Queue: 3 jobs
Job 1
Amino acid sequence: MSARVFIDGDVGTTGLQIRARLEGRDDIELLRLPADKRKDRAARKEMLNGADLAILCLPDDAARQAVAMIDSLSVRVIDASTAHRTADDWVYGMPEYCPDQPDRIAGARRVSNPGCYAVAAVAMLHPLVAAGILPADHGVTINAVSGYTGGGRKLIEAFEGKDIDTPYRVYGLGLDHKHVPEIQARCGLSRRPLFVPSVGRFRQGMIVLVPLHLADLPGHPGAADIHGALGDHYAGRTFVTVADSGDGADHLDPESLNGTNQLRLHVFANGDLAVVAAVLDNLGKGASGQAVQNMNIMLGLPEGTGLEPISL
């Protein structure tokens, strides 16, 4: 019997892409509420409790309310909101986080889907902290640019279908972006990282950058040490890869992995200066693709099912 999957919030940006990846699959049964019942609390509660697995694509407070509506102990949940990403009783939904993370996800009742900026930052920083290359108390700076869908509902409304003259905006200048607690917790950093996001005049795609002064790190590691730590951490993984150090890249395109569930890491260096870079689709590995990957693992299905590149 196929597992019953309900996407609560399947008309939003992330929910739509998850639904597109799940529709037509014969290894699950995709449940849907009629349009006139989407805001009916009783109908949602019935659907949530009737699913084997619920994927929440909701604002934080609505996600907490949805979890509170679930009475059945057999219902498993993937939450794509920020609400539970640092909660101790939720498993972090990044299968590449550590060697036993897929097993933890497979056995979990509650899985928090990472944020798009966060999954890129964690992918770069966590292995370096774990390897002892980057001290936990190091002052980390993270810079990023994404398509406007990476900035949430307000930026989508500001850009979608509008004739925008400005090609590029820096935002989050209160230096309190909601992904920062997740990055700090999941990277094991004792100091709050400095994160400055920006948005370009394109729909999706993302580059996240971590600059490093290698001479300021213990033991003065070289670029090869950074590259080696990342390569070892992600060896054998399908969806997080490390570009060859001699690949000759002289620029990065934020849209190059759009439609995929891939996250690609690069290490660039010049003497004692280095930049670690991550490229991904903020709606792929940064949201919907990641949720489908977690769902596959939780249901005992092949991890890559439904994660083939899609046309946009």
Job 2
Amino acid sequence: MSLKFLAVKTFILCPPKNNIFPLFDSEGFSLEESDMLCIATKCLAIHQGRCVRIGTVDKKQLIRHEADWTWEGSSTLTVKNGTVIPFSGIDESNGNGYYVLWPQNVTELLAEIHRYLCKKFTIKNLGLMSVDSKIEPFRRGTVGVAQDIFGFNPIKDYKGKEDIFGRRLEMTSVNLADSLASAACYLMGEGNECCPLVIIRGAGNVEFGNKFSMANTQLAKEDDMFGDILNVYN
């Protein structure tokens, strides 16, 4: 496997609303069959106009309104669309005076982008991910997370396969989407890099298709090792 991550530098997509599709005409942006493309959630949100001028709303109320679940301690921890993320994903960085919210109906938007890109580059298999950064318990610094996906199976299942000593695996699966999203998020950066697109080439053995969604990654509370700790769904 020859895995490559190719960061694409683009022009600035300015809030409060700006069309994302011209980003795909950026110099150096080209897709090949079986590529995967990570797109910063912020760009999708700006495309939808999901921006609120700072100073016009109370941020804590906005966070609560956007969250599916909120825990307020020394900081505000939330669950949004099945993802544990601070502040409901609301971000002020690179917002130019706006709060940038998480995008809505992302599956539908990624499907639209998928159709556009497949036609533009004459390809059939393409995986898309909406990527953002989050924090992990007991770890300093951010890591990437796939907010939503389209066009590929986000889970690589090892159940029934053998390990190096011939032991049959019963439970193991790999979250392919979040694993790749984290590396892509590192290339996107958190400052003034202006690289909201990252092409992943040569991932190997990816199951492409339009029947998959982030629902493939979700666990019921009773199956989640952290369910009792977070107690999110009560």
Job 3
Amino acid sequence: MSNKNNVDKEVGQNQAYASNATSNFFENYRKPLMAVGIALVVGVGGYFAYDYMLAKPREQEAANALWKAQYYLSIDSVDWALNGHEDAAGFQSVIDNYEGTDAAELAHYGAAICFRAKGDFGNALAHFQEVNVDDQAVSVYVLGNIGDMNVELGQLDEAVKYFEKAAALSKSNATRDALAGEFLLKAARVYIEQNNKDKAKETLEKAMEGIDNRSATYIEADKMLSFLKAQG
């Protein structure tokens, strides 16, 4: 009876840990990723606006239409950023009216951020999947956000695939080990939810490679790994 109680207690602890990890998954990362998303949209958009001063008229027109939506997003006016306000275009209008321009690609990213903030994860995923830019930093966050949206939609196999893609792309730049660690930590949380402890352990060990052992990512990964090892 004593052994059975110990086993039941261990299973309960493991399920509780996994459940807590999942429930806190997005609260831990929502605000930082939203902030980065806004910075990328505004910052990269500013580059486009400057570049298009010498570009084709349609490209310049698209960039001019985009800047107000960027501004609304920067002040957290999500509905105005997405749908426009008064005579200013929103991201959706830029997408609809300037398909094929680089500004429209960036508008997809902005629209995805807006839908994510509104809790419409299906539309957010659809727009993130439409983003196709050359900038590596933007691409990393697009992949990570696609992973996030798949978790929200309960598509865990797809989610972990995109977290690992985001980590791999981050790792390709030697200065981004810490960022790769964050995405691998997310992947490990998914593996815990799927009760794949061996894969979770392997992923946590990768998350800790090459990053400061005082960082929040390292400390969290180390804590999770110790817990899993204690379970056998």
